[in-house]
């Protein structure tokens, strides 16, 4: 078996039918190019949507759940132990919003090797005031630099800097929706009143915009101490603890352990965003289904072209066998032709897919809901390129193998006699 001779014959066959060879290569090129472009664009969009929710959602959210007691006094009375008890108008049990001994719990969590960070939060209901106008609002008291480190808060601050809040105990990063309604800007002062009626003037040091109107119209950020002062509570008052793990997949198990051990509500990220995660899975499924269909269609096109090429080269096959080439040699000639088409077409497909993806990533995409996004999101994952070239070679191999197996069995005497 002389590979130089086999490859030389394959090259001659491809060049002698340059139009058919080009069509076959272009089938691979556009199939692979479209697969890479579609996969990069669709997964980029999915990543953007995921980021809007998951970047700002803790892996575990710990808080005190206000709910009715599961065990009522009548259930503990011996005389009613064997009865069927019906209880109406059950009221929630008396419990504090604050987390008992929260600072010790945070230290315990931060000492865990699985935890990237655990940070306190104080939520306070307030009213934003502008003359006689009152807007309902939610104030989040946070350690702003830890929010930046763990939850990328700075990506959603469209004006100002998080450091300005960290150094100003009377500062506020206000929601963009609130600022628009009250005609406020960075540097202005906004009047807030707590549910107890106390008035607090705060200086706006930044504007926050998540892209979700229902959040931007009510939510703002202040320092932890500021929120505690607005509520009239001490420095140990913590209403929520947000935990981020190194591995998000472990959030469900750890949330269950925290809930049982500390008698607190602990919600993991998958439970909190179950509907959103289902939507993401469906979008990914559609993306990959369409992409794989494109590759399969391209593979059938290659098979048809190579099949026709073999029927047109019956005389060449007869001559090759008559001059001493074995059936295996003939088979390898046509398989090598298919692989050459796959290499050339696949390589061009990778280039076209890359340039199209880069072109899409430079198309302006500006919307008021997503001020930090300037162009269409594209995911240039190298895995797409690896899948593309592997599929190009595998599909062209099988597309050439089946016709080549027929060529291997051709009897040169029958062909020459027919001529």
Task: Give a brief outline of the structure.
By secondary structure, the chain is an alpha+beta fold. The chain has helices at 3-16, 18-54, 73-76, 102-110, 144-151, 162-166, 176-182, 213-216, 224-231, 251-262, 269-272, 274-312, 314-322, 327-361, 382-408, 412-418; strands spanning 60-63, 115-130, 133-142, 157-160, 171-175, 189-194, 199-208, 219-223, 240-245, 265-268. It folds into 2 domains: 3-54 and 276-418, no CATH class; 60-269, no CATH class.
Topology, pairings included?
Layout: H1 3-16, H2 18-54, E1 60-63, H3 73-76, H4 102-110, E2 115-130, E3 133-142, H5 144-151, E4 157-160, H6 162-166, E5 171-175, H7 176-182, E6 189-194, E7 199-208, H8 213-216, E8 219-223, H9 224-231, E9 240-245, H10 251-262, E10 265-268, H11 269-272, H12 274-312, H13 314-322, H14 327-361, H15 382-408, H16 412-418
Parallel strand pairs: 3-8, 5-7
Antiparallel strand pairs: 1-9, 1-10, 2-3, 2-6, 2-9, 4-7, 6-7
Helix pairs in contact: 1-14, 2-12, 2-14, 2-15, 12-15, 13-16, 14-15
């Amino acid at each position: 078996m002389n590979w130089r001779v086999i490859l030389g014959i394959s090259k001659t066959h491809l060049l002698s039918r340059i139009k058919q060879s080009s069509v076959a290569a272009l089938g691979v090129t556009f199939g692979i190019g479209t697969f890479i472009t579609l996969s990069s664009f669709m997964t980029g969009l999915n990543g953007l949507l995921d980021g809007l929710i998951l970047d700002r959602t803790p892996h575990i959210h710990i808080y005190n759940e206000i709910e009715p007691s599961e065990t009522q006094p009548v259930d503990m009375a011996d005389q009613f132990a064997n009865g069927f008890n019906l209880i109406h108008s059950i009221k929630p049990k008396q419990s504090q919003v604050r987390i008992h001994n929260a600072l010790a719990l945070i230290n315990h969590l931060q000492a865990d090797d699985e935890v990237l960070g655990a940070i306190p939060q104080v939520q306070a209901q307030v009213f934003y005031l502008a003359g006689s106008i009152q807007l309902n609002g939610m104030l989040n008291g946070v350690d702003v630099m830890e929010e930046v480190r763990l939850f990328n808060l700075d990506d959603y601050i469209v004006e100002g800097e998080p450091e300005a809040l960290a150094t100003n105990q009377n500062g506020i990063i206000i929601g963009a929706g609130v600022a628009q309604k009250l005609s406020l800007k960075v540097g202005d002062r906004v009047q807030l009143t707590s549910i107890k009626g106390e008035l607090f003037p705060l200086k706006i040091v930044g504007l926050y915009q998540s892209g979700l109107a229902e959040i931007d119209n009510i939510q703002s950020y202040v320092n932890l101490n500021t929120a505690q002062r607005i509520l009239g509570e001490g420095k140990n008052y913590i209403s929520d603890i947000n935990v981020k793990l190194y591995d998000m997949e472990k959030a469900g198990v750890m949330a269950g352990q925290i809930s049982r051990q500390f008698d607190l509500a602990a919600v993991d990220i998958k439970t909190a965003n179950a509907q959103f995660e289902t939507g993401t899975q469906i979008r990914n499924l559609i993306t990959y289904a369409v992409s794989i269909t494109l590759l399969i269609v391209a593979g059938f096109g290659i098979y048809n072209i190579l099949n026709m090429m073999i029927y047109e080269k019956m005389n060449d096959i007869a001559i090759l066998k008559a001059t001493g080439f074995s059936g295996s040699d003939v088979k390898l000639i046509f398989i090598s032709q298919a692989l050459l088409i796959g290499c050339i077409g696949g390589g061009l497909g990778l280039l076209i897919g890359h340039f199209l993806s880069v072109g899409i990533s430079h198309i302006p995409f500006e919307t008021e809901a997503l001020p930090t996004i300037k162009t269409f999101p594209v995911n240039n994952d190298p895995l797409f390129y690896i899948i593309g070239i592997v599929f190009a070679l595998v599909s062209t191999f099988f597309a050439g193998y089946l016709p080549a197996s027929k060529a291997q069995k051709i009897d040169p005497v029958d062909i020459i006699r027919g001529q």
